[in-house]
User: Fold these one by one.
Assistant:
Number 1:
Amino acid sequence: MHVFGHHQLGLNQHNNAINLCKEAIEIASSNDIPFLKVIGYFNLGVYNEYLDNLQTARNSLETTLDIDYPKDIKKDTYLAIKYMLARVLFRMDLIEEGREWLNESKKLAEEINEQTYQTKISIIQSIYLEPNESSLDDELEKLKKKKLWHDVSDLSAIAGRHFKKKEMYELATKYLVEALKAKEYTSSLQEEAERI
C-alpha cells in the first residue's frame, strides 16, 4: 500500500517522504490519474499519523474518500483508508466517528476476507471500544505469528499511549514495552536487508 516515500520514512527522513507524497499528488492531479492521487493522499495520511499530526492525517485520509474513483475496483485500498481514518479519529478522541469508520472497515474486511485487517480492527476495538487485555494480547499474537513486527510495534504503542492517557499505567507500560520489543525486530530486519 505504501507506494511513495516508504523508504525515506524508514530512514527517519519524514519531510522527504511527505514531500514525495505531495509531489506524487501534484503529478497525479495534473495528469488526471485519480488512483495515484488516492495513494498519495493515503500515504500522506499515514505519515502524518506517524508524526502525530492527527488533524492533517485526518484531512488527507478524508480527501482520499472524496476523490472520484470507483471504490469497488480497489476494495483493499479503501479498507486500508477506512481503517486508518478510524484509527486517527480514535487517537483524536473522536470515539463515535472512529466507531463508524471502524465498522465500515470491519464490514469491508469481512467482505473481502482480509484476515490481517480483521485482526488489526479487533485490536483497535480492544483498545478503544471494548477494552480487553486478553483479547488485545490474542490479536497481537496473531500478528506476531505472521511476523508483522511493524504492525505489532505500531499498535502496541497506540495501546500503550491510550492506556497512559487513561491513567492505566500498568497496561501502558506493558504495551509500550511490547512496542519496543517488536521495534527491535523491525530494526534487525532492516539492518539485515541493508547488508544484502
Number 2:
Amino acid sequence: MKLARSRGVALVLGVVLVSLVSPRAAPGQPSQKDEQLLQKIQTDIFAGRWEQAQAQLEVAADRLSSHPDFHYLRAIMFHQLLEFSQAIEALERAVALAPAQARYYLLRGRIYEVVEDLSAAKRDYQKSIELAPNRSRAVLSLAKILVTEQRPGDAATVLEEALGRMSDSAALHHRLGRVQEMLGRPAEAAASYARAVELDPRLASAHGSLGRLYRENPEEPETLARSVHHLQQALRLDPQNPQWHYELGATYRRQQNWEAAQAALEKAAELAPKGRLIHYTLAEVYRQRGMGEKAKQARQRFTDLARKAEKDKLQRARLTAQLTRAEQMEFGGQTKEAVAVYQDILDSLDGLGDSTRGNQVYFALARLHLNAGEYLRAEEYIRRILEQQPNNGDNHHLYALTLLNLGRKAEATQELRTAIRLKPSEETFHNLLGNLLLDTGQVDAAIAAYQRAVELAPREPDYHLNLSAAYRRKGEEAGAAREWQAYRKLLREQRPRPN
C-alpha cells in the first residue's frame, strides 16, 4: 500500500502576562495540578528561563492541548523567540477554545503589527477593546497604528472615547497629547501631558513630552524654566534615554546656557552615537563656545550620518523592488532569472545587516533549488536559515525534507524529531516521521507517530490510510481494517457533491 505523502512545507519567517487562574466553561477545564503547572511555566517565562518553560510545555502538550492558556503560553514563548508564524498559529488555537479572552487578541494584534499586517492587527485590537473596554493597552496600540496610517483625527477619537471610560489613565492622556500635537493643538496637548504627569508623576515619557513642548512653544520667559524642570524629571526617572538628554541640551541652548547644553548633548551623543540631530546641535554649541575643532568634527559626523542614512534608504528601496521582481520571476516560471536576482540581493544585504530580509531570500533560494532538484544547494541555504532561527520547527521540517531527498534518512529523522519538539502540534511532522520510521522497519514507532497525526487531524484521510498500512505491516488486521474504513468514510464525506 502506497504511503500518503506529507503535505506542503510551510515556509515562515514585551508581552504582558496575567493570572491564568480564571473561571472557564467545563470543556477543557484543567485540574488544580494543571493550573499550578501553567503558573509555573508562566513564572519561568517571566524569569527568562526559556528552555525550562519550553520543556514543560512539551511535557504537558498531550494533557493540556484542550486548555486555551496552554496555547497562549506557547504563543508567548514563540513570540519571545521571534517565531511569529508559530505564535499566531498557537493563538488561533487559543481563540478557538476561548473566544472571549481579550488578552489573546491583544497578543495576536501585537504580533501582526510586528510582521506589518496592520489590517489584521487593527481587527484584533478592536476585538480586544470590545471584550475588555476598560483596559488601555489595546486602545494605545490601535491609536498608534492609526497615527502610522496618517489618521491622527481617528486616533484622537479612539483615545477620547477610551478616556470617557478610563479618565484616570496617565498613558491614555499622554498618547492623546502626542496626537493633539500632530493635529496642531499645542495648548490641548500641554493640558493632556500635564494631566498625565498629575496622574502618574513617575511617567518619564509624559515629563519629557511636556518639557519638549514647553521649549517649542515658549509663551512666557518662565516656560523654558518649566521645560528644564520636566526634562530633568524625565532624566531622573529614565537616565539612560538619549532623547531626554538631547531635549534638555536643546533647551539649555535656547537659554544660551552653553556649558550645560554641551554636557547634556555630549551625553546624548554617547548614548546614541548615530543621532544626526544630536551632532548637528552639538556643532552649534561648540561653535558658540569657541571650540572650532570640535565643532568641525561634529558637523562632519552629522554629514557622514546623513549621507549614510540617505544611501541606506535608497538601497532598501532598491532591494524591495528587487524582491518583488524576483518573486514575479519565480512565480512566472523564470527560475534561473529569479535565482540571479536573489543572489544580487544577498550581495547587497552584506552592508546593511538586514537579517529578516536575508532569511526571506534564503527561503526563496532554498525553495527554488528544492523544486529544481538541486538538493545540495538547497541544503546550503537551509543551514544558513537554521543558524539564524534554530528554534523554528518549520525550518527543521524543511531541512528534513531536503535530507530525505539526499537519501540521508537518519539525519532526516533527527531533524524531524527536533521539529516535533519545537512544534508538537503540527500533524504533518508526525505523519512524515511515521513515513520515515515505517520505511526503515520501525513499525511500532511508526504506528505511534501516525496515531499522533490522526489525533491532531482526525479528518485528514491520508493519516488514516498511513496508519492502516502500518497496522497491516505489523499483522494487526483489525486495526488496519478500522483505519481503512475511516479513510474511505472521510473520502466519501469530503467528495464534492454533484450540482
Number 3:
Amino acid sequence: MNRAEAFSFFDAVASEASKELKRFAKDLQITQKADKTLVTACDIHLSKHIATLAQEWNIPLLSEEDEEGYTLITKPLFAVLDPIDGTLAYIEHAKHPERKLGPEFDYTLLLTIVEKSKPRFGLCYNFVTGERMKLDSRSKIHSIIENVKRLYKSKIAFYYENRTDDSLSRRLLADTKIKGRYQAMSLGQRLLLMQLNPHESAAVSHFAQRSGLWDVGPALVAASWSGAKLFDGKGNPLTANKVFIDGGIVAYKGSYFEGIEKKLLGKL
C-alpha cells in the first residue's frame, strides 16, 4: 500500500468514526471485559463499522474489540484498530457534555497499517480536538499532522495517566528537573506527543492495565524516525509481532532518560 492510499483510508475512517460517535452521544452503555477494563457500546459499534469500511478497501482489520481477528497478526498486510483509546475520558465527556474538560480527557482513534510485520502507516485521530496525525514510517517529512492542539515545549517532559501508581511513575513525578508533566488518558496519544513535541527529552510510563498492539502501533511508526525507544514491562523492545504487550510500557527519547528501562524497570 502506498502513502496516498493509506492516508485516504485514514481520512475516511476518521470522518466515519466522528459521525458515528455523535450517534451514540446519548446512548452510554458500559460493560466490563474479562481483563476488568471498560468497554462501551460505542467502542463495539465503531469497531464493527470500521471493519466494514476496511473490507471495502480490501484491508484485513485486527480490532481490540474483536478477539476472533487476532489471528490476523500473521498476515503480510493488515490494519490494527483501537476505536476509542481513552475510554474513561470518552465516558466523562458522554456523562457531562456541558463541561469543558481539559486535555487529560482527550480520547482518540488509533489505526495502524502493518506490512510484513513492520508498522508502516499510523493514524491518531483526536475526537475532542479534531487533530489528525497521519504518519509514514519512512519519513517525518511525508507525515501529516492537521489541526495541532496539544503542542508542549518543555525541555524535559513526562507524559502519564493519573491512574498510574507504579514506582517508576512516582519517581519521575518526584524528579524536580522534569518541568513538563502532562496527563492524558489516551496511551497512544501520550506515546506520540512524547515523540512529536519539541522536547529535548521525554518519557512515558504506563502500567495501569493490559496493553496491545492497537495502543502502540502509531507510536511505533513514528519511532522509525523520531529516535524514541519503546519497551514492554520486561525491558524488551516493542515490535508489531505480538498482539499483547507484557507487563506495561516504557518509552523515551533524549539523553535524560537514556537507559531508563535498565535503571528503573527492574525496581517496579
Number 4:
Amino acid sequence: MQNLQATQEYPHYRIERIITHRWPHLDEILAIILLMQEGKRKFPGISKARIEYSRAGEQPEGKSSEKHLEEGTLLIGLGGGIFDEHPTIEGGVRKKGESACSLVAKSLGIDKHPLYKDLVKKVTQADLSGVDMLHIANELKRRYRLNPHNQEAGIHFGQDCIYNLLEQQRLFLEAIKICQHPDRQALAVNFPCLKVIFVKSDNFMVPAAARYLKIDVVIQRNESGNVQIFTTSPIDIKMDTVACALRCAEIDIVIEELSEKELSHFSEDGKIPESPLWYLQVPGDNILNGSETTPDTPATGLKYHQIFGLVREYVRKNGKVE
C-alpha cells in the first residue's frame, strides 16, 4: 500500500480503535473530537472507537500506520500515519505548519468551517510555537506532570475545554445572526455615525458578535426582562449621560430638572442608591441592569422603546454630545 496523505482521497475504513501517544496534547485531543464528530462518513464506526495510548516515537505494536488502518486502527499524532505531523521513525521531516488537528480538519474538509477553523488554527499555533503559562495547552501539560498516574483527569480537562470552546463558537455564530436581524436598529440622534441595535436574547456572545459586525452599541434584553447595554465600538463612547437618563426615567425624574450637582451624581459609575437598578461599568462604559455576577437584580420597569430612545438620544463621544 502507498503512503497515504491527509489531503488525498483514500479508501473508507471501518475504525474500531484509535491510538495516540501517552499524555496527548491539545491538538491530538481536538483531532479525535473532530474525527468523532465529523469523520463518520470517511471513517465509519469512529464515533464509537475505543482510544488507546502508546509511547511517542515508536511504531505501535510494530505495525505500519497503513497496516493499522487496514485492521481498523487509526493512529493520531504518532506512527507516521496520515494524522501524524512529526518526523517519521525512518527520518522523514515534520509536516511544516501542521498539527494532528489541522491534518484531520483538512482531511475532513472542515478546515475552513466557521465552527472549527479558528480553534484549529489556535491549537496548531500553540502546538508549534509555545504559549503563555496560563494557556489551556500548558495547563493540560501541567495536569499530566502533577498527576502522572492519572492521565484520564488531564484528558477529561482537555476535552471539556475543547467542547466548551466549540459551544462558545456555536453561540457566537448564532449571535451574529441575531445581531444581523435585530428587533430595532437606528443611528444615534446626536452622533449619526453610531449604530445602535436592540435584541432580545440570552446569548452571552451577543456583545462579541456586535463587535465583529462593527455595531457600536447593543442593547440586549434577556428572557428575565433584565437589560444590558454594551459599547462594542473602538470609538471612545461615553455612556455616563445615558446611565443618568435611565436612572432618572426608572424613578420618574425629569433629567432636565436636575441641578448640575445632581446630574453629576446620577452619572456616576457603579450604582447609586436613589436608582439602584442600573450599574455603570467603568472601564468599558457598559450599563447593566443585572449581570452574571448579580443575577438577583430586579428587571427594569422601562419599556424597550424607552431604553432604545434614551440610548440613542444621550450616547456621547469623548464626553461631548455632537
